[in-house]
Amino acid sequence: MQRTDPLRFLATATTLLILTAVQCSITRATDEFDKPPISYRDSTPDNCISRLQESLDSGTQTFNYDGEQGYLKSVLNALNVPIESQMLVFSKTSLQLRRITPRTPRAIYFADDIYVGYCQSGDVLEISAVDPQLGSVFYTLNQEQTETPRFDRRNDNCIVCHASSRTRGVPGHVVRSLYVDAGGQPMFSAGSRTVDHTTPIKDRWGGWYVTGTHGDQSHVGNLIVRTKRVPDQVDNSQGQNVLDLQDRFNVDRYISPHSDIVALMVMEHQTLVHNCLTKANFATRQALHYEKTMNGILDYGEDNRLDSTVRRIANAGDDLIEAILMVDEAPLTSPVKGTSGYTDVFTKNGERDSQGRSLRDFDLSQRMFRYPCSYLVYSESFNKLPKPVYDYVWQQLGKILSGEDSSEKFNHLSKTDRKAIAEILRDTKPTLPAHWATPPGVKVSLATP
Question: pTM for this one?
Answer without folding.
Answer: 0.89
